[in-house]
Structure formats: structure tokens, C-alpha cells
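Problem 12. The chain below contains 262 residues. Write out its predicted structure in C-alpha cell notation.
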Amino acid sequence: MKTHIFSRFLLGLLMISNFLSAEIVEIDRMKNIHQYVKQNMLIIFDIDNTLIEPVQELGSNQWFTHRIKEYCSYGLEKSDALEKALKEWSAIQSVTEVKIVEQGTSEIIENLQLQGITIIGMTTRGLGLSTRTIEQLESVDINLSLSAPTKEEIFFMNEKGVLFRGGVLFTAGTHKGNALPKLLDTIGYHPSEILYINDKKSNLVTVEEMCEKEGIAFTGLRYSFLDKKVKNFRKQIAEEQFYFFGHILSDAAAERILHESK
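Solution.
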């Protein structure tokens, strides 16, 4: 009887320990991650609105969200609205310049990498934007391959094709909580703790649930640096930018401009 009671007591302590090892907290500055960093953990950075953003409203995460809602208001099914907005967003990402979300982030990541801490990126972006995304990150002095658990390029299925390239896991809109463990199993890397920084709590929750299943300690940091900018999205500015995006001049218009420039 005493043995049975003691076993139940240990099980209870274990359950409490597991519960305490998973948490999601909010930070408004990237420097605040330092208090959560440990030497042997895996740190995962979201990309959009966490590390980089377009230099203009057009093509931002908030523009993408607005565009989906706009198409739905026109009567499109949500799946069709998502598909249409995603095509436009991808086209914009292919050409837009980006800037760092918060000054100093590149240096923070570099310093952690120099300390030998394992770091990767994880994004809903798809395979078609993988090369462009790495170029965008490089333009703000971020190289997520430097302390990644593998330099190998890895493709696998997670509902659809998913790619790990340049230290970034491109989940192509699939469930991050399913894609991440598949990558870790493939490369034979099993961290005891994960620190995940993302501007959206919903994405943190999917990985938190995965960690609970896998017995991995988890800390999610909901990064709120751009909250005010997202809330104050300038719709009219973005509409003007979209109107002129990819605009091809007619021969007559081009001839008129040439004539006026002489």
C-alpha cells in the first residue's frame, strides 16, 4: 500500500514538473530573450514580423490578413480568399526589400550563435520562397545556418512538401507542431528544451503542445514589438502601393514619358 501511494506521489510530482516546464510569456523587446536562454536548448525564431518585415505596408503580415478579409467580404470562400491573397503576397515577397523588425536583433542572434547555442528559423512560407527568404535575411545580416543542428538541405512531407534550408524550416502553411518533430527525428537531434519566439500566440501553442507530447521543456515568447503598427495598418497606403505594383506601361505611355524627359 505504501509503495502504491509513493508511486502515485511521484507521478503527481512528475505531472506538476511537466506542467511547470511549459509556458508562454510576452516580451516587447528582443533583448528580453536573454533571461530565458540556456546553453543546451534549441532556439527557434519566427521570420515575418519577428525578424523581418517589408519596407512598406504592401506585403506585410497585416496587409496579408486584411487582404484575406477583403476577399471574403466579396463573397469568396475563406480557402479561395486565402489562396488568392497568398499568391499576391508571394509575388510581392519575390521583389520587395525588407528591414529588420527591431534594431539590434541581428547582433543578438550572432552573439548567441558565437556562444554555440543551436538556432533555427521556422516559417509558414513555402518552398518557392526559400531562396528569396534567405536572401532577405542576409540583407539584414542574419544567417540562421551558422549554428543550426545541420547544414544539410532536407525535404519531407507534412501534408505537403516541407523544406529545411539555410537553417530555416519552411512549413508551407502546414502544422508547425507536426513539421518540427519530423525534422528533429530526421536529423537525429532531440533537444531537452525549446525556446520559440513568434509574434503570434497561436503558432506558439502548436509547438507547446508538441513539446508536451514529446517531453520537451518549452518556453514560448510572444513578441509584441510590432503590435501597435499591426493595429494601425494603413489600408489606403497599401492599396495605392498595390495599384502600382507590377504595373506595365503601354507603348504609348512609355513613349510619352520618353518624350517628356527630353
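Discussion. The domain at 21-53+101-230 is CATH 3.40.50.1000 (Rossmann fold). Students who got a different answer should revisit the alignment rule from Section 12.3.
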